[in-house]
Amino acid sequence: GSPVTVAAVDLGAASGRVMTGVAGDGVLGLSEAARFANLPVRAGGTLHWDILRLYRGVLDGLRAAGPVESIGVDSWAVDYGLLDADGRLLGNPVHYRDARTDGVPDQVLGQIPAERLYATTGLQLQPFNTIFQLAAARDSAQLAAAKTLLLIPDLLGYWLTGEIGAERTNASTTQLLDVQSGQWSAELATALGLPAGLLPPIRDPGGLIGPVRPEAARDIGYTAPVTAVGSHDTASAVVGVPAEGENFAYISCGTWSLVGVELPAPVLTADSRRANFTNEAGVDGTVRYLRNVMGLWLLQESLRAWGDPDLGDLLRQAAGVPGLRAVVDAEDAVFLPPGDMPSRIAEQCVRLGQRPPESPAETVRCILDSLALAHRAAVLDAQRLSGRAVDVVHVVGGGARNELLCQLTADACDLPVLAGPVEATALGNVLVQARAVGGGSAGLADLRHLIRTTHTVRRYEPQGDADRWRAAAGRL
Ligand code: LRH
C-alpha cells in the first residue's frame, strides 16, 4: 500500500532512541529523531533504571518524530515496574545487573528442578530472569503492595495509553510463560507465591495497545495509536535481519550478543538445556533459539574503566595486536556485574594459563577474539542442537559497525558474515507497525526482502585458519 510513517522507540541498556520510519511497497526509510543516554542510578544499595528520565526522553523524542500514524516501543528484556491498586508505579525498576539475584537461582531450583523449569518455559537460566528477580523480592513490602507487573515497554505503553498488557516476545523472557500454551504458567506463579492477577493478559505483536491518552498527547503534540511490536528488542532485531531463506544464523550484537537461529518450534532436549540455549518467542509465532554471549558490554565496561578513551584509535591498535594470544569465556557470569572489567579479564586469562593482556589495545584484542570465539561456539551449538544447517551469519546492531569483530567472527565461524543494518531493531519495530497499520499480509520473508532491497550489508569472507580457532576454543 502507500507508505505509512511510524515512530519506533528503542531503548537499549546504554542508550535510547526514537526513530521515524517510513515503510510501504518498495520503500523503507529510517531517520533518527532523538537519542539519549540511559544511565542507571545506584541508590540505597540498589542499581535502578532511571525510568522517568527515560520516559521524558521518549516523550521528547516522539514530539520530534511526529506526527506519525503509529508508535511502537521495544526495550531490553526481563526488567519490570510494579503498579499498586491505584495504577501508580511502586519505586524505580531494578536493573537486571543488580546483585539482588546473587544465589537466588539455586534457591529456586531447589524448589523447581531445572529440568522441570526448562520443560515448562524453554528458557535459558540467567540469574537476572524475571522469575529470579521476583524470587529475590519475595518478602518485600513492595511486592506485597503490587497489583500489576509491567515489563519496561509495557510500562511505557501504559503511561502512553492507560492500557495494561504483556507483549508476548518480552513476556517469554520472564521464565514465567509456558512455552507450549503461550500463557503464563499458573504452576510457576503459584510456586513463587505471586499475587493472583499480577501478570497481565498476553498480547501479540501487531495488535493495537490503544490510542495515546490526552495527557501524553499534550506532551508529544499529537495523538496516534500505540501498536504492539516485538517489544523485546532482540525480537525486533531478528525481524530486522535481512536474511534470505532459512539457513542463516544471526548475531544481534549490542550490549549483548544474542546468537542463534529462527525455528518453527522450540527445542527442549536435555542437551539443549545443558547448553543453556533459550527458546524465546519471536514475531509471527517463530522461536528465537539462541544463547546469550556477553557482547560489547565487555568493551563498554573496559572503556569506562579507562576513562572513555577514543574507541576508533583503540580498535586500530587492536587490529595490529597478534590474534588469539589470550582468550576468555565470554559467557562466564563473572563478567555480568558492572565494575572493573579489565582486571576480571586479566584474572581469567591467568587462571586459564595464558599471559594476560598488558595494555588497553591488548585487552580490546582479547575481548574481540573472545567474542568471536563465543559466536563460533553458539553458531555451532545452535546447528547441532536444532538440526538447522547454517551457511551464513548475519550480524546486526551496533556490532555490525565493528569491522574487526565482523572479520574475526567470519574467521572463527568459518562462514561468510553479512553485517548490517546497525538499526535492525528499529527496522523490525517499524516493519511490524507498518504492516499492522497498512493492513498488509506480509510474512517475515517479505519484510526481510524489503530490508534487503533498501539497505546495504557488508560481506566478510572467512580468511582465518579454522584450526587455530578450534585450538583456541580448546583452551576454555
Ligand atoms: C538485549 C537483551 C537480551 C536480554 C538482555 C537482558 O538488549 O534484551 O536479549 O537477554 O537484554
Entry summary:
This protein is α+β, with helices and mostly antiparallel strands and 476 residues long. It contains 19 helices and 19 strands. Bound molecules: 6-deoxy-beta-L-fructofuranose.
Protein topology:
Blueprint: E1 4-11, E2 15-24, E3 27-37, E4 41-43, E5 46-48, H1 51-65, E6 70-75, E7 80-83, H2 104-111, H3 114-121, H4 130-136, H5 141-145, E8 148-151, H6 152-161, E9 166-167, H7 168-171, H8 186-191, E10 202-203, E11 208-211, H9 214-220, E12 225-227, H10 233-239, E13 248-253, E14 257-263, H11 270-274, E15 278-281, E16 287-293, H12 297-305, H13 311-320, H14 341-351, H15 360-386, E17 392-396, H16 403-413, E18 417-419, H17 424-438, H18 444-454, E19 458-460, H19 466-475
Parallel strand pairs: 1-6, 9-10, 13-17, 17-18
Antiparallel strand pairs: 1-2, 2-3, 4-5, 7-8, 11-12, 13-14, 14-16, 15-16, 18-19
Helix pairs in contact: 10-17, 13-15, 15-16
Bound molecules: 6-deoxy-beta-L-fructofuranose.
Residues 12-13, 76-78, 96, 232-234, 255-256, 258, 292 line the site of 6-deoxy-beta-L-fructofuranose.
